[in-house]
Design a protein that fits this description.
heterodimer, A: mainly beta, six-stranded mixed sheet, B: mainly beta, seven-stranded mixed sheet, 0% helix, 49% strand
Chain lengths: 115, 113
């Protein structure tokens, strides 16, 4: 079984400041890792994923996440946030053997970007 | 491509009634998933289909929950004899193939009074 812990339920930050959203996971098997984002009144959208290869993965809108196997973490970072980044962010894992179908999500982190 | 569509958007029902939700996936997607999200929590996996075959249903919360995808296109999720604890957002998602990203619908918000 897998579990995902997002340590911060809310992260307030000023526009143009850097941000890190923390994610730790627990699993007895190897996993794939994901970050999903939910903007207000919209469905969940995939932000980025780690399947294999380079441990640093990037999204098209400036977010990046680094897989750290020894610390079982997959923290999400952005060097300079915008008002439009205000959303709820969910970290998720799935075991290798179902490749992203049966996702286990964390409780979410609400990012609130203030002007 | 209009994305994943879920109906209704909101459903209010009395305890003990049966409810059914519908999900229309993206048309060429053969995999379809149901998740449940309660307030302040992340989505919780319930079940998934590959075409019309239900490949995983052990995570359905009780025998009051059932899902179908009769022709491998749309799917329905039924909850019988609803309880107040069933109040949640029910999310549907679809994907083209194993390992491809999931596209989520906006969900059906169920309130059981």
């Amino acid at each position: 079984a897998q579990s995902v812990t997002q340590l911060d339920s809310q992260v307030p930050v000023f526009e143009e400041a850097p941000v890190e959203l923390r994610c730790n996971y627990s699993s007895s098997v190897s996993v794939y890792l994901f970050w999903y984002v939910q903007y207000p009144n919209q469905g969940l959208q995939l932000l980025l994923k780690y399947l294999s290869g380079s441990t640093l993965v990037e999204s098209i809108n400036g977010f990046e996440a680094e897989f750290n196997k020894s610390q079982t973490s997959f923290h999400l970072r952005k060097p300079s946030v915008h008002i439009s980044d205000t959303a709820e962010y969910f970290c998720a894992v799935s075991p290798y053997n179902n490749a992203g179908n049966m996702l286990t999500f964390g409780g979410g982190t609400r990012l609130m970007v203030k002007p | 491509d209009t994305g994943v569509s879920q109906n209704p958007r909101h459903k209010i029902t009395k305890r003990g009634q049966n409810v059914t939700f519908r999900c229309d996936p993206i048309s060429e997607h053969n995999r379809l998933y149901w998740y449940r999200q309660t307030l302040g929590q992340g989505p919780e996996f319930l079940t998934y289909f590959q075409n019309e075959a239900q490949l995983e249903k052990s995570r359905l919360l009780s025998d009051r929950f059932s899902a179908e995808r009769p022709k491998g296109s749309f799917s329905t999720l039924e909850i019988q004899r609803t309880e107040q604890g069933d109040s949640a957002m029910y999310l549907c998602a679809s994907s083209l193939e194993l390992g491809e990203k999931l596209f989520f619908g906006s969900g059906t918000q169920l309130s059981v009074l």
